[in-house]
Amino acid sequence: MTTRGRQIVLAARPKGRPGLTDFRLEETAIPTPAAGQLLLEVQYLSLDPYMRGRMNDGKSYAKPLEIGEVMPGETVAHVLVSSNSAYVKGDVVLARTGWRTHALSDGAGLRKLDPAAAPITTGLGVLGMPGFTAYGGLRVIGKPQPRETVVVAAASGPVGSLVGQLGQLAGARAVGIAGGPEKCAFVKDELRFDAAVDHRAPDFPARLAAACPDGIDVYFENVGGAIWEAVLPLLNDFARVPVSGLIAQYNGVPDGDGTDRLPATMRQILSKRLTVRGFIYYDFASEHYADFLREVGAGIATGRIRYREDIVDGLENAPGAFIGMLEGRNFGKLIVRVAA
Amino acid sequence: MTTRGRQIVLAARPKGRPGLTDFRLEETAIPTPAAGQLLLEVQYLSLDPYMRGRMNDGKSYAKPLEIGEVMPGETVAHVLVSSNSAYVKGDVVLARTGWRTHALSDGAGLRKLDPAAAPITTGLGVLGMPGFTAYGGLRVIGKPQPRETVVVAAASGPVGSLVGQLGQLAGARAVGIAGGPEKCAFVKDELRFDAAVDHRAPDFPARLAAACPDGIDVYFENVGGAIWEAVLPLLNDFARVPVSGLIAQYNGVPDGDGTDRLPATMRQILSKRLTVRGFIYYDFASEHYADFLREVGAGIATGRIRYREDIVDGLENAPGAFIGMLEGRNFGKLIVRVAA
After folding, report:
1. pLDDT classification of B58: cutoffs 50, 70, 90
2. What is the pLDDT of residue B257?
3. Does residue B304 register a pLDDT over 90?
């Protein structure tokens, strides 16, 4: 057992796109658990777009991180030392340790993972927060019906890939939007969406329209920006728009062309009687999380539900991987392997 | 009985603000009812903001009016001649004759009014489409709870005045936004809202914030534009925004200041988990209209629910009154007295 741990803290608040110098890798002493506590060793760290918001100063649904604080995040960890009767050494848990190699816990908020049931990394992706974001947003807001059309962007990512597959399981057509031919091929051929559209194509709006001949009934919004503009005219009357993320504007909104796009969106909301509703996965957790684990867990076990993980080695590489994710450079659920 | 009727048709499609020359008054022959038909003589014509949209060419929830067609609209009429066994001469009905003095009907879509139950003009306002717009939007989308804050603009108008009063009946605080001190005094003193705020005041956003010390839980959107901008930062987590109208943009959206306001709205929808949902009153009619008539009818009868009508004399004055309404010059539900 090593005697020194490592952690990554917020070094500076980024303006716009974060840079590597906004993060700092620190060595730390490995703490000793008191009675009732556990010492956790992190195996996998999840990198998720919401973390960009936590680096800002402004009001959001979570309080901002202070400079010098450890970057927040969900991890898969195993118990190194237990002074808590509910856990034994070797137990694998889902925890919120943040970007670090070791952490103490009193057991609160941990969830034990069964490595025999599914690969433990799925607890950070398709069977974790991103997966439940897809499930909750569709179940509570999107409500896809048979023969409707469900559209989602970042379709090769952990939320989007499940949105389309759950839409299909509900009997709807699934159309995925992704960046570049490789991701589109994955969405169409591996995830088996009904169609995939490359948002980098110069005629993207026309391609999206062609892929949605009956319009769009559910648009699961996790991107914003130019994709929303292409989706808006295709939405059908009474379409539902769960808003789970706006990654296109997390690094700031680029200077526009002087057009105020709000009136057009409001006009469509009114004339088509759209429902546009923001949510965060935990809003729905108490009511729907158990169903989610059972239904999606079964889909994973049978192979009906597919997913892709993009695993980066080494905690020290987390900042670079995170910066790339905000620009769509990951391919699948982005996870950092912190310890083997 | 006169032998000539009159009607007002769409003469030209307005660009932006309509002008008097966009309408044309025509004389017509009074038709004779065939078997099964009624001849209706219009007493009151309702003028409503949605009519502006019907003058345009673009796609909306209703097909656009053709040039030369009679302007659409709901009316209170009485039966002059009946060849339909379900009606007798003198019956008073709610009809959709449009802007005209006389019309034939086969009885379909008519609703008999009881002049003893409430003044017949209320069928066009507080007990008609505008009233049900308020009722349905609150009942299905807004869902005001005790001690919440409900905000509505155009608060002296037929929709807004009922939104606030129904909010109070549900136990919420009602804050009305209106244009000018006279309308604000009416909202506060006659309609008995908890507060009224003048949107023409230079410090309107600060005044609105002061009137909503606990934030806003339901914002009933019937205006759009600058009022939405002042409301947005005050919305609480999980606030509901029924969108029933956008009168500020019906004559076109003024040139902006180069700011794209959509990203800020989307960010608030996400971080505060807002529900923004458009609707049209008839979406909810089959399920809720009977409850509406009973509940609001009882409130009118006891005096608990108050309303104001702005009655203009003469069909020939409908275009000028309509143009003024789009600029907020009416004070209460705008109705044209077509015949005594």
Report:
1. confident
2. 83
3. yes
The verdict on residue B289 lying in a domain is: no
Percent of chain B past pLDDT 90, that is, above it, reads 89
* A39 shares its domain with A78: yes
Structural domain count, chain A: 2
CATH label of the domain that carries residue A205:
3.40.50.720
- The CATH number of the domain where B327 resides is what? 3.90.180.10
Q: With an 8 Å Cβ cutoff, are A260 and B259 in contact?
A: yes
Q: Say yes or no for a CB contact (<8 Å) between B271 and A279.
A: no
Whether residue A301 lies inside any domain: the answer is no
- Identify the H or E element spanning A142: none
Specify if A296 maps to a domain: no
Domain housing A251: 129-282
| C-beta atoms of A246 and B267 within 8 A | yes
Q: What are phi and psi of B277, to 5 degrees?
A: -140, 125
List chain A residues with CB under 8 Å of B280: 273
Residues B108 and B200 in one domain: no
Read off the pLDDT of each residue in A185-207 and give the average, rounded to a whole number. 97
ipTM of this predicted structure: 0.91
**Are A139 and A237 in a shared domain?**
yes
B130, containing H or E segment = helix B129-136
Residue A241 included in any domain: yes
If you count residue pairs, one on A and one on B, with CB atoms under 8 Å apart, how many are there? Answer: 113
Of B59, B260, B275, the CB nearest to A277: B275
For residue B265, give the chain A residue with the closest CA: A262
Q: What is residue B78's predicted lDDT score, i.e. its pLDDT?
A: 97
CB A241 within 8 A of CB A219: yes
Task: Name B163's Cβ contacts closer than 8 Å, sequence gap at least 6.
Answer: B134, B137, B138, B142, B150, B152, B155, B174, B220
pLDDT at A1: 55
Query: Is the distance from CB of B175 to CB of B149 less than 8 angstroms?
Result: yes
Q: Give CA–CA dist A20/B277, Å, rounded.
A: 41
Q: What local confidence, expressed as pLDDT, does residue A212 receive?
A: 98
User: Are residue A102 and residue A143 in the same domain, yes or no?
Assistant: no
Q: Are the beta carbons of A109 and A129 closer than 8 angstroms?
A: no
User: Are A65 and A26 in the same domain?
Assistant: yes
Structure tokens that stand for A190 in this block: 């591996």
Beta strand pairing call for B309-313 and B333-337 = parallel
Q: Is B271 in the same domain as B214? A: yes
Give the pLDDT of residue B79: 97
Average pLDDT, chain A: 94
Q: Is the dihedral of CA B307, B308, B314, B319 positive or negative?
A: negative
Nearest to B262 among A59, A261, A275 (CB): A261
